[in-house]
Amino acid sequence: MYAQEVKSTGKGLKTLEEMDPEERAFQEKIDANIKIEPKEWMPEGYRKTLIRQISQHAHSEIVGQLPEGNWITRAPTLDRKAILLAKVQDEAGHGLYLYCAAETLGISRDQMTEQLLSGKAKYSSIFNYPTLTWADIGAIGWLVDGAAIMNQVPIQRCSFGPYSRAMIRVCKEESFHQRQGYDIMMVLAKGTPEQKEMAQDALNRWWWPSLMMFGPPDAESVHSVQSMAWKIKMNTNDELRQKFVDQTVPQAEYLGLKVPDDDLKWNEEKDGYDFGEIDWGEFYEILKGNGPCNKERLGARQKAWSDGEWFREGLMAYSKKRKARKVAAE
Amino acid sequence: MTGDPVFEFALRMGDNCLVLGQSNSAWCGHAPILEEDIALANVSLDLIGQAKLWLSLAAELQGEDKSADDIAFLRDVREFRNCLLVEQPNGDYAQTLMRQFLFDAWHLPMLTALVRSTNVRISEVAEKSVKEAAYHLERSTDLVIRLGDGNDESRDRMQSALKALWRFTGELTTPDDVDQALQEDQAAPDLDEIAAHYEQYTQRVLREATLVIPDVSGMQIGGKSGLHTEGLGFLLAEMQSLQRMYPGASW
Ligand SMILES: [Fe+2]
Ligand SMILES: [Fe+2]
Q1: Among A8, A15, A264, B40, which is most exposed with the fewest C-beta within 10 angstroms?
Q2: Which residue in A has a C-alpha nearest to residue B145's C-alpha?
Q3: What number is the ipTM of this complex?
Q4: Residue B217 maps to which CATH number?
Q5: Residue B56: which domain range?
C-alpha cells in the first residue's frame, strides 16, 4: 500500500505470559481497542515500525503529487483543472497530517525529508509509473485512490491515536478523489473512439501496478504478524487485494472497459474473482529504484527542496531578526 | 475601440486570472515547503474560479453560444487580453511571489472599486472575488516583506525579481479607450485613482521589505490590446493542447 515495505522490528510474536508487565499492559490495551497516545509507554519496536509506516505513507502522499501534478497545466477544461489542482493539493495536506502524526513519535519532519531525499526511505511503487495521457489522471483517481481507500479505511481503527485520527481526516477527502477519477473515465469511455481507446489504454497500464500497491503476497510478507497483533496493520495484503479486485471489476464493466487479465474469472465458491499472476519481479525492481520514473520522481523532490532552501532560510532569518528587534525594543 | 467595452473588460479581468492561475499551478508539488505548496495551490484555485466567472460573462456577452472553456482554450495569443505582468515566466520562487504581489496590489483596489460598478454583471463578479483578492494581497505582502528583509540571498532574489517585473506594472494603471468608456459609465474605476493607491501601497511595502524600486523609464504595455511577450504562446500551447488535439470532444 502506501507503506508497502515496512519491516517490523518485533522479533516474533510473544504470548501475553512471555511479556514483561509493561509490555503486557500495553498489549492488553491494544487488545481492548484502547488507543495508544504518544506520551504513553510503548515498545521500541512499535515506535520504530510506526515511524517507518507513517513516514512511508507521508512520503507516498508527497511523491504522489507528481504524476498527477504533471497534468494540472494541461487539464482540458477549467473545471477539470480546478478539480485536479484541489485533489493534488489535498494529497499535500495528507502528507502534512501524516508527517505531524509521525513527529509525535520523536522524529522531525526535516529528518524524514532527509530520509526520502537520500533514497533511504521508501514510498509507494505506484508513483514510479509515468502519466502519459489525460486518461491516466482518470485511472489514477479511480484505481490508485480506490486502492488507497481500501487500505486506509481500516487504518482509521488502528491502535495509535494520532495515526488513526490522521486517517479519519484523510479518508473524508479520498472518496472525492476516487469519484473525480471515475468520472473522468466515464466521460472518456462514453466519448469519441479516440477517447475510449485512451481510457482502455490507461486501464491496461494502471491495472497491474494498482494490484501491486497492496504489497507482496501474504506468504512473503513476514512482518505482518507482529504489525497485526499491534493493530497497526488491520488486514493482510492479499485480503485487501482481493477486496479491491472484487469491487473494481464491476466498475470496469460498467465503463465498458476490459480488465487486462485473461485469467480473471468469477469464482462462485469463494464469492470473489480469481485473477492472474502478478509480476512481482517488476514490483521488486521498482522498490530497488529501477522503475520507469524512480529517478525523475526523486529528482523532482530533491530539486524542489534544494531550490527552496533560500526561501526557507530567508524566512528563518527574518523571524530571528524580528525576535531580536522585539527584545531590543523592550 | 471595436465592440462592447464590457466584453473586452471581462476578457481582460478573466485572462489575468486565467494566465496567473495557470502559471502558479505549475508549482504544485514543487514549492519550497509543503505549507507553501498548499497555500499557492489555494491562490491558483481562487484565480481559476474567478477566471471562469469573468470568461462566462464574456461568453454570454459575445452571444455566440460559447462557453468559458471555449474562450479559455480556443483563442490564440493575439486574442488574449491579460496584462503583460501575469504572463511573465515563473522563474524562481522569488519571481513567482513578486509577480503575485505586484498583481494583487492592483487587483484588490480594482475589485473593491468594481463592487460599486453601475454594471450589475461586473459588480456581481467583483463581489464574489474581492475577499479572495484581499487574502491574496495579505499573503503576498507578508512574504515579500519577510523575504526582502530576510537574509542576503533572499533579499537579492526578491530585488532581482522586482527589477525584472517592475517595468510591467505601468500597464495595470494606464487607461485606454475601453477603460475610458467604462469609466464614463461608472462601470469601472478611474485608473488614475487606482494608480495613486497602487503607488502608495507598493512603495510602503517594498520599503519595509528593504527593496528598491527600479528606474521607472521604459514601462512595457500591450497585453490589454493583445500585444504580448513571447512566453504567452508557450503557456497557451501547453494549456490548450488537449482541446486543440481533439476538437469537439467533451471532457
Ligand atoms: Fe491521499
Ligand atoms: Fe487521494
Answers
A1: A15
A2: A318
A3: 0.97
A4: 1.20.1260.10
A5: 5-245
